[in-house]
Specification:
By secondary structure, the chain is mostly helical. Helices cover about 55% and strands about 0% of the residues. Keywords: Membrane, Transmembrane, Transmembrane helix.
Length: about 90
């Protein structure tokens, strides 16, 4: 991520961390709500039901390695090297 825009790397890393913490908080809240509403007997099915759309979103938004189109290249450093962004 930082190689895509080195000037804004601290902002990108902090936004990524914030999204991670927000996701963990949402998961805890969703889990406790599922247990309160459905009981612990149905907890696994609620998790599976939430995992299915999450997997679909990940599949749609993630480019495949083959045929994913051209990749952006990182800017050249002071030594004239370029590193491909993966």
């Amino acid at each position: 991520m930082a190689s895509l825009d080195p000037a804004n790397a601290p902002v990108l890393v902090s936004l990524n961390s914030s999204a991670l913490y927000l996701g963990m908080a949402a998961a805890g809240g969703t889990g406790s709500l599922a247990i309160a509403l459905f009981g612990d007997r149905w907890f696994l099915l609620v998790g599976a039901g939430l995992m299915a759309p999450a997997t679909g979103v990940a599949a749609v938004t993630t480019r495949a390695r083959k045929g994913g189109g051209p990749r952006r290249r990182a800017p050249e450093d002071t030594n004239g090297r370029t590193d491909a962004v993966t």
